[in-house]
Amino acid sequence: ENIFDRSRMAPKTPIKNEPVDLSKQKGCTPERNPITPVKLVDRPQPDPWTPTANLKMLVSAASPDMRDREKKKELFRPVENSEQSDTSDLLQYDIVDDTTVDEFEKQRPSRKQKSLGLLCQKFLARYPSYPLSTEKTTISLDEVASILGVERRRIYDIVNVLESLHLVSRVAKNQYCWHGRHNLSQTLKTLQEAGELQYGELMTIFQHKEQDLEYKFVERKKETIPDSQFRDFSEPDCTSASANSRKDKSLRIMSQKFVMLFLASKTKIVTLDIAAKILIEDAQDTVDHSKFKTKVRRLYDIANVLTSLGLIKKVHVTEERGRKPAFKWIGPVEFPGKTDELRGHSPTSDPLPGAQRGACAPYETCASGKQRFTRHASFNSAQPCEGTRRKVTSEPNSPRHERQDEYCSKMINLAAVCRQKTEEDTRNPSVTSPLSLLPVPGDSEFCVNPLPPAIFPVVQADVPSFSLPNSISSQALQPSMPAASKTENGKATLLPNQPFLCFPSSSFFMLCGGLQENNLRETLPTTGDVGSRSAEAQAAVPPAACQKRSSHKCASPSAPADDEEPAAKKQTMEQGDVPLSLVVPKPFESPKAESTPGSGCTSAEHLEAFHLDLSSPAAPETADKESTKSLDSQEQEKWSPSKDPGEPSSEKEHISKENANQPFLPQYLYVRPTAGLGSFNFLFSANQAPGPISLAASQLPSLSVPCVVVPSAALASFPLVCSPTVTSPLSLVPDGSFSAAASMNFSMSSLASTTPVFIGTTTVVTPKVSPTPSVDPQQPAHPALHLSPMLARSCGTVKLESPMCMGHPVTLLKLQQPSSTPLTPKSIRPARHEAFFKTPGSLGDPVAWKKNEGNQTRNASSVQRRLEISSTSPD
DNA sequence: CGATCCCGCCACATT
DNA sequence: AATGTGGCGGGATCG
């Protein structure tokens, strides 16, 4: 009741209004529960029962409202509790009534009455859900706290969550600005997009088997050293946060992530443990029980607020283990353009939201909230976290034995990292938080982010399948996922968002990004920035793709799903494959553009076909597709035969439609260190190219290749390979020739021992390219071109063979490595034991490294350092 | 007894 | 230094 009234009333100045509300409340309460003596008591007596009461009284003097509030505790409960709680309360009260109990007792609100959820409701009741755009409501924390009769601390809990959803923004110290739900849909949309990217897969996975895995994750104490490293850059949030300050950390971000989980979940139901596990990014591996517990606690806090907002509701999920607490999303699910939130309310569509947020960070506030912004800063700054973080538990390392769990977790991390980086790169550096994306509607980059998480099928080592990146939404994936997941015991894994494919043990793997299409289109984007690419990509992907973007229009996730099926089929075929497990990523190049004329060869296209075909026939460029498709099929077959037929992987792949959407999913080749590297792995980004790669770039400046070094441990289980194709790596290198060579060597050396390598398909193939083109470091175009030719060439005849680039890689591998064994990956795993940190020199071509080093000594050092650490720590 | 989660200490950030 | 923020987890309460 109150709510209604209030909401209506909720005029601009809540505060003032408050009094009104109160009055009403009072009125109500008594009515409702005549029974409860408490109320009676309350009303009649304002007197303070607490020492502080006096103070409050004084305050109240100023405003009657306040005074009510003061009582609030007493009053509150009853009032608030309306409904259920009321009843319960009543009961209690009744008992109390009996008389025996003191008023205190009665009054004493039960815990429930004091619950954060209730408090939040009260809080929300004070402000209109859809305030007039004109009015600006400011919220004074102190005031509210006093009114609601709680400590300020509690208000922070509420406000932080609301802030994460942009219902409020911090204006200044102690001052928040109330925005209401006008932008909620927009925010949710953004979160959904980001969530799918980040958690799409995971959610899918979890939904199926998850629990087990997760369970394990949690349960075991895992530690992870490596992760920490990752974390540094990888996690946007936390890690970067370090710089930002702890603030960025938790509640706000956690809240956003939590919401993302829901939005990325098909079922819209998320169990707390899963959420906790996923949200404990850091150390997933490591986390221990206590950490998990804490996380869950926080989630309860967030859940209470979200519940009050009517976005989720508590439910229970019964699973194998039994019944687990969970929450179901009951908020809006579709976010067409922007529209408002679920509830009906006028269409609104205010522009404002966008505006307001502006590009700002998620939290940007209306007014000047500069400080806050800083928080979000993310990686850019890349500072060590340590300073701030207090608990971070960085743990020591521990050996990990985990299986899937670990893998998963790691994968997740990687994925996250990659994703983030790419995103970040894409976007402004400034942005960091997951949400960061959110804000800018217009921003092209922004768009990029939204891409749905691609799902990757996991490929087993053996199986070469490639996956397509495009998974759109996890949804589609899911079905397939299971299969994928099955991969083995854990080895293969899906990366959540990433466009990676994990191969369990094979020595190296490729991960495909969703680029395909994009790449194609991009062909020459050169724009260099990722963003542009992404944009292009999006554009490119007409049908499906569109969705991703915020664009209101398209996006229908469903489409993607459709794709899957076919894809799946295809997949199966594919799998077979080669001993090497390469996958080929999709080629990125833009086939159509130049190089390959029509030839379906381009893997990319194929991919597309897979992914897209269903959905978007439209793509003009893709016209080729048809050919591609045919190819695909053929290819598939070919592939499949090769090896494990049974591979699970098959299904998964397709999913990826998203990828397509995605502008650039980063593709990485993962090189397994076995031989030389020992502990750390490198990921080369294939596509990313220019900017995005930032990760790599930042770290390894000079390197031509954008590599990411991952501690072996972390990856160990699954190696990732970056797709080479892309560009960037090559491009990066100034000297083209060198780059190519370098990369080669590089890979070689490292891999040499065990594995084959890969690399560069692209590189290899197009050595020539690299050289000159290299001039522009980043131009994507070149790469693409290269590839395409290759593809064409290789494919040309071959076309049929591999849809993807796979073929290429394979060959390459062979060439380079004769011995290498292919796959068997998992077993191989890394010997991270060795792990030492090898210096660059050790890695590959010394020369190359040197160059790098020279250039970027610093970076290198850092990298090394990390490596060392990781390596050491683990064991 | 497990699920919830209130409460408030206290570290870190901002003034 | 004072005050604002907010991480965090002990331990009370609920179911």
From TrEMBL:
In alphabetical order, the GO MF annotations are: DNA-binding transcription factor activity, RNA polymerase II-specific; RNA polymerase II cis-regulatory region sequence-specific DNA binding
Q: Does the keyword Transcription apply?
A: yes
Q: Which Pfam families match?
A: WHD_E2F_TDP
Q: Where in the cell is it found?
A: Nucleus
Main localization is: nucleus
**For the E2F/DP family winged-helix DNA-binding domain, which residue ranges apply?**
111-180, 246-331
Q: Which GO terms describe its cellular component?
A: RNA polymerase II transcription regulator complex
Q: What residue intervals traverse the membrane?
A: none
Q: Where are stretches of biased composition, namely Low complexity?
A: 535-545
Task: Read off the InterPro entries from this record.
Answer: E2F, E2F_WHTH_DNA-bd_dom, WH-like_DNA-bd_sf, WH_DNA-bd_sf
Q: Where is this region: Disordered?
A: 1-50, 63-87, 338-357, 377-406, 523-577, 583-602, 616-655, 837-875
Q: Compositional bias of type Basic and acidic residues: which residue ranges?
A: 65-77, 387-406, 635-655
Q: Give the record's keywords alphabetically.
A: Activator, Cell cycle, DNA-binding, Nucleus, Repressor, Transcription, Transcription regulation
GO BP annotations of the record are: negative regulation of DNA-templated transcription; positive regulation of macromolecule metabolic process; positive regulation of nucleobase-containing compound metabolic process; sprouting angiogenesis
Question: Which SMART domains does the entry link to?
Answer: E2F_TDP (SM01372)
Q: Where is the composition biased (Polar residues)?
A: 854-875
**PANTHER family the record matches:** TRANSCRIPTION FACTOR E2F, TRANSCRIPTION FACTOR E2F7
- Protein family membership: Belongs to the E2F/DP family.
- This protein's name: Transcription factor E2F7
